[in-house]
Amino acid sequence: MNGKAQSGHRTFLRAFLSEPDVVGAVIPSSTRLACTLLEPFAKNDGPARLLEVGAGTGAITRCIPRFMRHGDQVTICEMVPALAEHLRDHVLTRPDLAPHVGDDRVRLVASPVQEIPGEDRFDYIVCGLPFTAFAPELIRDVLACFRRLLTPAGVFTYFEYAGLRRLRTALSFGPSRDRMREVSSILDDNISASQFDRRTVFANMPPAHARFCRFRTSA
């Protein structure tokens, strides 16, 4: 592991220890998982707008340039100050990203996704937020925000660690178990209503389900 990768892992771990309910993982996602989540964006034929939410130390961000085409616009959203600083100083300065930052095709938003203006609409949303660590009300709020920001035919992708919800529910008690049951209900309802594909990525620690969703529009 090179120095920059070690720095990224240390930053991620420190952020997890200081804000576990926001970061929700001890190590960043693998490149294989990141590329899987970006597949809908990668397969797009024309200029598209991509929003990455919960970018962390840039596991997904670093994969974006290989799929960008002429005219694409990318917004990177990260609300944890230490992680946003790491992205700004160590990821967006990479040779494959810095030119896009310079011509305003890639921008960093260091605030919650809920603060992105409603007039901004995206064709693709890639989400790295740890839903299982969130309060149910926050999950509903984020999903409602995605619905507001996504174009009618847009796709949003996210991941969750295989078996984590079931394990957390089994090992928790009282209010914590009640929270996990409500979280699972919200996520299951979204999966039932919106998911059109799912891939299990074993080349990740731990293995993760990549979920591909599209909001249904009213007739």
What descriptive keywords fit this protein?
seven-stranded mixed beta sheet; single chain; 219 residues; Rossmann fold; 41% helix
Describe the structure.
By secondary structure, this protein is of the alpha/beta class. It has a single domain (3-213), classed as 3-Layer(aba) Sandwich (Rossmann fold). It has 9 helices and 7 strands; from the N terminus they run ααααββααββαβααββ. A 7-stranded mixed sheet has the order 3-2-1-4-5-7-6. Strand 4, helix 7 (136-149) and strand 5 form a beta-alpha-beta unit.
What structural category characterises the helix and strand content? alpha/beta
Approximate helicity band: 40-55%
CATH superfamily: Vaccinia Virus protein VP39
Q: How many distinct helices? A: 9
Proper CATH architecture: 3-Layer(aba) Sandwich
Average predicted confidence as pLDDT: 88
Q: In brief, what are we looking at here?
A:
Helix content is about 40%, strand content about 20%. It is α/β, with parallel strands linked by helices.
